[in-house]
Every structure is written in C-alpha cells, then in structure tokens.
Specification:
4 helices
C-alpha cells in the first residue's frame, strides 16, 4: 500500500432502513480504508461509523447514507438521514454507567477529534448529517 498520504477522495454508501446496514457499512469502510492505505485508522473509524449509522437506522426510520471522505490528512465520516431533528446531545460516558442505550454519540465524542451535525435539505426533502473527523497523525 502507498506510504504517501492519499489524494483527496470521497465515497457515499446509500443504505436501507435495516439494521444489517450497520455491518455492511462497517465492512465497506474497512475495505475503503485498506485500499487507500489507511488501515491504521480502521478500528476507530469502524467504531465511529457503527455508532453514526446505527443512530441513523434506529432513530430516523427512512433512507440513510454513510459518507466517507479523506482530505488534508483527515478522515471524515458522516451519516445522513431523512430526519431533520437534531440528535440528542451526548452525555458524558461516566454518567451512563452500565446503561445499554445512549452511548453512541458519547463514544463518538470521546473517540473522534471533532464531531457535529448539520441540517441538510435537497429538492424539498429535509434531513441531517451527523459527522466526525479523525486526523491521521
């Protein structure tokens, strides 16, 4: 695999409203990172993508997409869904204790270098993109 940082690129995987899409997204992301020589980011990126896509599938109930991009040494992951409502703010992991639910965005906040969300609209349809970034260094 190449030793130099790869040139900018971007992928978008459209996913159905189906929990199996989480596994497909995670495996597709690992393949993308492998072929671009970024396998060192794969474990953390898979965790982040799993949380973002799972939230989109579980809470939005409609079409969704995983966006993956690389530019200037930063990997950017995003999950688009058709629900325009903002995500619930993450609580600190320490407050969650042994809770089974509510850890997704708290994990994203803890593991990503940056994260956020933005509303999106296109052709009269509204939705949002929840994203995070991982620096290669």
């Amino acid at each position: 695999m190449p030793e130099n940082p790869p040139a900018p690129w971007e992928y978008c995987l459209h996913i159905p409203d189906d929990l199996r899409a989480v596994t497909v997204s995670r495996r597709t992301l690992r393949l993308i990172l492998t072929v671009h020589g970024l396998i060192r980011l794969a474990d953390t990126a898979e965790l982040l993508a799993t949380e973002l896509v799972a939230n989109a599938v579980l809470h939005a109930k409609g079409p969704a997409a995983l966006r993956v991009g690389w530019s200037a040494g930063v990997l950017r992951l995003g999950a688009w869904d058709a629900d325009p409502e903002p995500p619930e703010p993450p609580r600190p992991l320490a407050e969650l204790g042994d809770a089974e639910d509510g850890r997704g965005l708290a994990l994203v906040r803890a593991c990503a270098d940056q994260w956020g969300w933005q509303p999106l609209s296109r052709n009269g349809s509204r939705g949002k993109l929840v994203w995070c970034e991982l620096a290669a260094a």
